[in-house]
Specification:
The chain has 139 residues and is mainly α. It has a single domain, classed as Orthogonal Bundle (434 Repressor (Amino-terminal Domain)). The protein is built from six helices and two strands; from the N terminus they run ααααααββ. The protein has a two-stranded antiparallel ribbon. Helix 2 packs across helix 3 and helix 2 crosses helix 6. The chain is elongated, with a radius of gyration of 20 Å. The relative contact order is 0.13.
Length: 139
């Protein structure tokens, strides 16, 4: 079984090796940015799909090393490190352009119902920030 703390350390090693941020690494393997954050913090364990995406996008990551810490990283000296980093940065730039190019939808005030006060209590509020981080507040 995979040790989450040690896996998180190896994942951070991969991110540092490519000189990426957690957000750009998440974008490069096409997973949610929160997935990286949760795995690095030990909150979640990596899924098989998550591991396979890393191996597919970063072929110099040895599967056995990633899962068990045995073997070596990088698997071989790669000249593609810079090209992979550049692709991840280009993906980030494309994503930023797409976000900036969209306009907010007009709000039809007739559809908004006023809050009439409920007997239900709020359990949790989660704020998501533009930089991919979030804060959770619980009652």
């Amino acid at each position: 079984m995979v040790n989450s703390d040690q896996f998180a350390t190896r994942l951070q090693t991969i991110i540092n090796y490519y000189d990426l941020s957690a957000a750009s690494f998440a974008d490069s393997i096409e997973v949610g940015r929160s997935s990286i954050s949760h795995i690095l913090s030990g909150r979640n364990k990596p899924s098989l799909d998550f591991v396979l995406k890393i191996i597919k996008i970063y072929p110099e990551v040895e599967l056995y090393w990633l899962l068990n810490g045995k073997g070596s990283f990088p698997k071989y000296v790669s000249t593609e490190v810079h090209s992979i980093k550049k692709q991840a940065e280009e993906k980030d730039e494309t994503r930023d352009v797409d976000i900036k190019a969209t306009r907010p939808l007009p709000i039809d005030n007739d559809d908004i119902k006023p809050f009439t006060g409920s007997t239900k209590k709020i359990k949790r509020i989660v704020l998501f920030y533009e930089d991919g981080t979030f804060e959770a507040f619980e009652n």
